[in-house]
């Protein structure tokens, strides 16, 4: 069991953590025809916009209430009202997702009250959904903002259904965590559909940020789950949540609609995916398709091939709690040791990680603990640390701005896990050294074969 500690430094150096509003905005981007809106200064929105553009390499819809110093002190009702009216008239979204920021949370703006006043004053907005989420960036982190936003979507957009409602036996709700990429979602959709089931994914980044070229330009999100699909989630037969962060959303959906849920804290690794496939087979009443059985066999073979290169390796990981849990558990299964683990926010999973200590800190803390490790694993801001430590570096998470294909990185399912073994195994191979006779020599105290002995023979 790991000991969870907090960094005692006076300031953050080379941040690992990203803020709640960023995670909240990303969740809103998984909705069709949505416009995310930051209630805060222009700088907050500009920072998030640049981060997402560099990571996804796509046009990102994100607006701001543009709070000035005076507006922040006096209250932001006029700014919120003007922003909503402008977006409604120009972008014509189906939904506006509003996320608070540190400056407006410190002031204490009553945004829920603002929205009631705006609704009463502007009945022409009745056809647009307005969802507000409190996401102060002076507390919690990226995955917290995502989780709170998805829970809020469930509470406000899913229609309650009677207890005796007839469920659609083919429909399955999927609630992915913030660490699940569009590529991961495509893989999970393929697995679910292989059993004849229809996934309803909230939020669905695979439809909006998967890097496709749209037929027509739209100023709002270009894909994702529709409001009609969200409203009907109560008629699905089951909910699958991926990541401990999604437990509140799954519980809220069950409480509101009666749809039972199963939570998988990770879907990377053999045992975790066996449980996932067994659930799908049970829900569908169908045998496991041969192609999935073959994928499992390929993963087992990859584990056999790769464990020679993973065994005994020391790994340093910096990531959000659910991603840290996913990677550390998988490395442990492959025979590696998680020697350093740094994360961003609290989670009940942290104490269960197979390492001595999990630190809530920054990339400076990770670099200090990664000395002597064989691999550094974090997002792109860790690249300089890996250079200074002269160890291989594997990029994962957000932001990943110095490599192509971040949105399509896939580590879930049998295939995703198999490919992850190959990618990281190849890093170990590339950083290794050619063996020499001295490499295989025994220590002197055990009677090793030295040069003199070899010469005598």
TrEMBL record:
GO function terms (MF aspect): nitrogenase activity
Segments forming domain Nitrogenase/oxidoreductase component: 19-427
Entry annotated with the keyword DNA-binding: no
Function: This protein may play a role in the biosynthesis of the prosthetic group of nitrogenase (FeMo cofactor).
Pathway of action: Cofactor biosynthesis; Fe-Mo cofactor biosynthesis
Identification of the protein by name: Nitrogenase iron-molybdenum cofactor biosynthesis protein NifN
Annotated stretches, region: Disordered: 438-457
Superkingdom in the source lineage: Bacteria
Record keywords, A-Z: Nitrogen fixation
Protein's UniProt keywords contain Glycosyltransferase: no
A biological process from GO: protein-containing complex assembly
Organism of provenance: Methylococcus capsulatus (strain ATCC 33009 / NCIMB 11132 / Bath)
Gene that this sequence comes from: nifN
Protein family according to the UniProt entry: Belongs to the NifD/NifK/NifE/NifN family.
């Amino acid at each position: 069991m790991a000991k969870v500690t907090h960094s005692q430094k006076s300031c953050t150096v080379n941040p690992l953590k990203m803020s709640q509003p960023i995670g909240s905005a990303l969740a809103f981007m998984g909705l069709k025809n949505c416009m995310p809106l930051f209630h805060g200064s222009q700088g907050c929105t500009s920072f998030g916009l640049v981060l997402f553009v560099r990571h996804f390499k796509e046009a990102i819809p994100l607006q701001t209430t543009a709070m000035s110093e005076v507006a922040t002190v006096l209250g932001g009702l006029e700014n919120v009202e003007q922003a909503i009216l402008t977006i409604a008239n120009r972008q014509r979204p189906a939904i506006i997702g509003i996320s608070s920021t540190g400056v407006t949370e410190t002031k204490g703006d009553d945004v829920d009250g603002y929205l009631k006043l705006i609704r009463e004053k502007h009945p022409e907005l009745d056809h647009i959904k307005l969802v507000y989420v409190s996401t102060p960036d002076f507390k919690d982190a990226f995955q917290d903002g995502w989780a709170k936003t998805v829970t809020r979507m469930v509470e406000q957009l899913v229609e309650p259904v009677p207890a005796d409602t007839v469920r659609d036996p083919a429909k399955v709700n999927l609630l992915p965590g913030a660490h699940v990429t569009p590529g991961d979602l495509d893989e999970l959709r393929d697995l679910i559909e292989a059993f004849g089931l229809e996934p309803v994914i909230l939020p669905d980044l695979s439809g909006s940020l998967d890097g496709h070229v749209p037929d027509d330009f739209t100023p709002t999100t270009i894909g994702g789950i529709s409001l009609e699909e969200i409203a009907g989630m109560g008629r699905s037969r089951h909910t699958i949540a991926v990541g401990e962060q999604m437990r509140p959303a799954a519980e809220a959906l069950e409480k509101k609609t009666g749809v039972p849920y199963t939570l998988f804290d990770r879907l990377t690794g053999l045992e975790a995916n066996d449980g996932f496939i067994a659930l799908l087979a049970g829900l569908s009443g169908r045998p496991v398709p041969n192609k999935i059985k073959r994928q499992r066999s390929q993963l087992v073979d990859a584990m056999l091939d790769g464990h020679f290169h993973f065994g005994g390796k020391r790994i340093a990981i910096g990531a959000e709690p659910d991603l840290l849990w996913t990677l550390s558990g998988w490395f442990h299964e492959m025979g590696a040791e998680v020697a350093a683990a740094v994360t961003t926010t609290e989670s009940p999973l942290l104490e269960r990680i197979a390492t001595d200590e999990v630190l809530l800190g920054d990339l400076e803390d990770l670099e200090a603990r990664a000395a002597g490790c064989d691999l550094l694993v974090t997002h792109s801001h860790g690249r300089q640390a890996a250079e200074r430590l002269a160890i291989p570096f594997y990029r994962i998470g957000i932001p990943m701005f110095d490599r192509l294909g971040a949105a399509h990185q896939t580590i879930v399912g049998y295939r995703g896990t198999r490919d992850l073994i190959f990618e990281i195994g190849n890093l170990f191979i590339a950083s290794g050294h050619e063996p020499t006779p001295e490499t295989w020599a025994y220590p002197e105290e055990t009677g090793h074969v030295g040069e003199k002995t070899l010469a005598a023979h």
